[in-house]
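Quick question: what would this complex look like in 3D?
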Amino acid sequence: MADLPMEAQHHHTAPTGFIRKYIFSVDHKVIGKQYYFLAIFSVFVGMILSWLVRIHLVWPNLHIWGLGTLSPAGAPDGVMTPEYYLSLLTIHGTLMVFFVLTTAPQAGFGNYALPIQIGAEDMAFPVLNMLSFWVTFLALCSLVATLFVKDGPPISGWTAYPPLSAVGSDAGPGLGMGQNLWAVSIALFCIGSLLGALNFITTAVDLRCKGMTLMRMPLTCWAWLITAILSLLSFAVLFAACVLLILDRNAGTSFFLPSNLLVNGKLQNHSGGSPLLWQHLFWFFGHPEVYIAIVPGFGVISHVLSVFSRKPVLGYKVVVGCLFAIGFLSFTVWGHHMFLSGMSPYSGFLFSVPTLIITIPATIISLIWLGTIYGGRLRFTTSMMFALGFVSVFVTGGLGGMFLAQPSLDIFLHGTYFVVGHFHMVMGVAAIFGMFAGTYFWFPKMFGRMMNERLGHIHFWITFVGVYCIFMPMHFIGLEGMPRRYSSFVNELMQPLMPVHKFMTIAALITGVSQFFFFINLFWSMYKGPKATENPWESTTLEWTVPSPPPFDNFGGKHPVVYHDAYEYGDVQKGKDYLMQTDPAGQPASS
Amino acid sequence: MGKAFALVLTIITAITVAVLVSRHWWFPEVASAHGAAMDHQFTETFIGAAIGFILAQLGLAAFAWKYGERKGETRPIRIFPGGAKWLIVLALVYVGSEIILLEFVGQKVWAAMYFTPPAADSLEVQVLAGQFAFYFRYPGPDGKFGPIHADKINEASANFFGIDPADPESKDDIVTAELAVPVNKPVNLLLNSKDMDHGFYVPDLRIQQDMLPGMEIPLHFTPTKVGKYDIACNQLCGLGHYNMRAVLEVLSEQDYQKWLVQQASFQ
């Protein structure tokens, strides 16, 4: 493809029909927005579900309007049963991890911005791109459908450990049809992600415009490229695991099921498998997945911090190296989820070493963010606020990892709220902050209008304080040995912690409500916000050289040529503190 | 805005550190021999983490406070002294020393529990987990457990372990719903599950281990304090997971012998 003249590579003219333009579109910008709105829908549902599970924990007898209609069995008269708590918990986790954290940062923003930032007209395989979105959409439908089947969604958690997930409805409610739909949903999601990953890698490697060397790519592009490689290698394994799970459930195989399994008084007709196999396959995907969720955030935050500090990223090459190191190491640490699983204790020790080593590149990147804002001229836009917030919550969450990485401390902390607090902070909240920073940053480009900064700041402040109020206390009660995934607290250890749980629930409700400032801002600004100029943030990268929103082929038939690095800020030109990548004049700053 | 951010972040940092230092929410008191070493390791990790936490958050706050852009300002930007080099060195020193301290010096707890076999005179107790209860089996005078027959497990006739009455090794086995052990004597649990992935978690004794069907997983410890402790299932096992618990009672040697005789008379 590289041998073809540029003009021959992509010859599409803008479609005119509604369906080809907005539904089955091959335009990466439309697909990026489709992914983005899929994530917005999922995060909205996931957030409501988190309210429901938090409410159930502290006010178990509360009648919740409408819930009885949705699930007469799970919530008779709107009062949730303990098993429905587990069902909703499962869907909350699955939605958030797969359909929010994996879609918006990578497939959403990546699809939208990667081709423009590297000067391409589209992704390498536009039809494949469309296909990956629609497969993901089907996956979402299959997952949401679990809420409407008779005995509700599965109660096995987002990790779906067998035998619970593999033996069928003998094991409990939701484990029949609900678990099947879940497994199909995840298998489809894997396919969508694999197709997307191929596309991202090819695009970043092959379609860079003239002058856009690898080391001139914005860090966002590096992050998306590395995330795509992680996706390609890890989703393939999860796909296989899901197929095996579906076979165990429906075709009588025994990949994950040992013999002599006595479930609900019935001896199961299985033999020869091991539940540990699922754990290995799942976490071989599951740990890189954590980085699939957060690495695009690393890219966005490095980018945004540089733009709004009016300074080059400190140590661009170091960041790229660290991203590679994190990507590689993320495949060597999956066993730290399994220290107490019954696998060899020697492996437990072995897995804990790379787990601690991976904190070296993560620490370097965090310090580089601090070094980047040092001595800058910080502009506190909403996007910048979320970027600063990201650094704070990522460091806080990451330090919890230092405890959990040690098998000897994991003996106490495994399966407690400490773990819940840790991963929500470091991958959930941090990745979401990355998404917010990205939204406030790219919204003018995506929709041609500006978002309201005042609403944005209100949104930031409540969210920032709110997440600390929700997730720090989880760490504390974890230190008391409070197990996670309990739908009710029945003994003397846990009852005294009830006030803390109430505090967290109220904080979650307030933080959740504050997200409406965001939703209102998003949809209002889309139609009523002031028109955006080409380059409202005085940024240097290629997406800011084209109109907002960009034309169908991004560059209006022109072929951009790049002359400079991505982060030329500071005293680079007379009267201007930034230098566009495409500006043939100007002396690049020496950093 | 940067100053507000700095202020809020400093307050959050101060509250977090204050709560941890006050130890208001803290580990239950140790009741096992290896627990003290584990708590020591916790303390060391806390100190390391606190240094990183305070420096990073306050550094972030300080920079946000100091470097905000004022309107029409032409102050030149400043590059971090020495570039990224010193930050890399700092990360290597900070994380490196943590790794050496925690990983290679501090793994004694893990090694003592998992790399070393149980003491020869350990009390062996078999544990069988099922949705949503734990049962315990003592080997009786012969010191041997008969095999578990899954097809003979019958809750209605209280044959929780699937014991075959014809089996000579099973004859003197004692099955209980509560785990009682003598104080200061090593215990070796043999953990089994008949259906799901369960967890055996006793926070006070600093022990935890998953229980998997198809595997018998040993777990040894020495209780050091007489008392009653909660055993909680800590691996999602179904709708009654939150209610799956049992009691671990640590008794004096005398009381333990009495208890055992009492249990035997029920069989």
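Answer marked as accepted. Chain A touches chain B through 110 residues (CB under 8 Å).
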